């Protein structure tokens, strides 16, 4: 009798996981953060998205846009992985359609994630077509853009080796400085789009005031009071899977993202649009 009970419980648990993941993958929520800039960039509110991964082939586009449009942010930032690394020309149009729709009303700033790098390497023609289709998007590849006299956005574009699953490559603040050919301007509050949160300490050493990351999909499965379960490098309970972190005066916000790829599992980890208010 006990075996039937165990088997029945396991089946019910599996069914719950399947149905809940199905529900979460088709839901979008709003997350809010407030960041103290000590008056350097106060009064700015912007939206932050990441890891769209062609979310449900574009079926979430209306929900995502409506959440953003209801807030009317000053601008929108994407931390990359809007596509999947082996996407076809037709598939990437889900991301292109969303970004172009947003950019018709709000300035959009974006940097590469590892899947943009994969797409450029695996399907260069598709990547080229995708980039050319983004008419109003400011794509920052180791470049920066001044929002105003007090606020600057940096788009970090690191080499693919730093995303390798089974290798660890050390990164330095000098490496980042070499990519941007400068250090952050102390007179401006700096927001750095940096897809991979694993290198937070290095980003802080470089001097970025606020780092925006994704990549970990919130840890895929989130356990209450414990956090994300696994990272893209297959590390268990990664340190920076989701939320707000502070180091040496720098803040980092890691979003759980909007979509999934390959095994599309999410549990207690609803896709989100993040809104950040600078005070």
Can you describe this structure?
It is a single chain. The mean pLDDT is about 95. Helix 4 (about 115-120) crosses helix 5. By secondary structure, the protein is α/β, with parallel strands linked by helices. It is globular. Helices cover about 30% and strands about 25% of the residues. The protein starts with a helix and ends with a strand.
In short:
The chain is an alpha/beta fold and 279 residues long.
Beta fraction: 15-25%
- Please give the number of β-strands: 14
Spatial order of the strands in the main sheet?
1-14-2-3-4-5
**Low-pLDDT residue spans:** none
Biggest β-sheet strands, sense, barrel? 6 strands, mixed
Structural class: alpha/beta
What is the approximate shape?
A: globular
CA(first)-CA(last) distance: 61 Å
The succession of helices and strands, N to C, reads: HEEHEHEHHEEEHEHEEEEEE
> Over all CA atoms, what is the radius of gyration?
19 Å
* Mean pLDDT rating: 93
- The helicity comes to 25-40%
Helix count from the secondary structure assignment:
7
Comma- or semicolon-separated keywords:
six-stranded mixed beta sheet; alpha/beta; 29% helix; single chain; 14 strands; 7 helices; 279 residues
What's the SSE blueprint?
Elements: H1 2-25, E1 29-35, E2 44-49, H2 61-71, E3 76-78, H3 93-103, E4 108-110, H4 114-122, H5 124-133, E5 137-139, E6 143-148, E7 151-155, H6 173-180, E8 189-193, H7 200-206, E9 210-213, E10 222-223, E11 227-228, E12 243-247, E13 250-254, E14 272-278
Parallel strand pairs: 1-14, 2-3, 3-4, 4-5, 7-8, 8-9, 9-13
Antiparallel strand pairs: 2-14, 6-7, 10-11, 12-13
Helix pairs in contact: 2-3, 4-5, 6-7
């Amino acid at each position: 009798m006990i075996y039937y009970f165990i088997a029945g419980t396991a089946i019910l648990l599996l069914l719950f996981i399947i149905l809940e993941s199905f529900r979460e993958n088709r839901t979008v929520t709003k997350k809010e953060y407030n960041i103290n800039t000590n008056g350097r960039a106060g009064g700015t509110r912007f939206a932050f998205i990441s890891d769209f991964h062609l979310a449900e082939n574009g079926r979430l586009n209306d929900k995502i846009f409506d959440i953003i449009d209801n807030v009317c942010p000053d601008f929108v930032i994407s931390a990359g992985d809007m596509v999947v690394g082996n996407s076809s020309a037709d598939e990437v149009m889900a991301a292109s359609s969303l970004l172009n729709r947003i950019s018709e009303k709000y300035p959009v700033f974006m940097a590469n994630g590892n899947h943009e790098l994969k797409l450029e390497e695996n399907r260069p023609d598709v990547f080229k077509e995708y980039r050319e289709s983004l008419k109003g998007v400011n794509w920052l590849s180791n470049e920066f853009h001044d929002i105003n006299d007090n606020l600057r956005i940096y788009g970090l574009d690191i080499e693919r080796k730093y995303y390798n699953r089974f290798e660890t490559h050390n990164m330095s603040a000098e490496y980042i400085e070499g990519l941007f050919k400068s250090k952050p301007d102390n007179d401006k509050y700096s927001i750095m789009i940096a897809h991979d949160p694993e290198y937070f300490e290095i980003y802080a050493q470089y001097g970025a005031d606020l780092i925006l990351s994704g990549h970990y999909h919130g840890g895929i499965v989130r356990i209450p009071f414990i956090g994300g379960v696994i990272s893209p490098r297959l590390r268990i309970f990664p340190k920076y899977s989701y939320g707000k972190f502070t180091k040496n005066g720098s803040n980092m916000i890691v979003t759980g993202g909007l979509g999934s790829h390959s095994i599309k599992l999410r549990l207690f980890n609803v896709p989100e649009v993040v809104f950040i208010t600078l005070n």
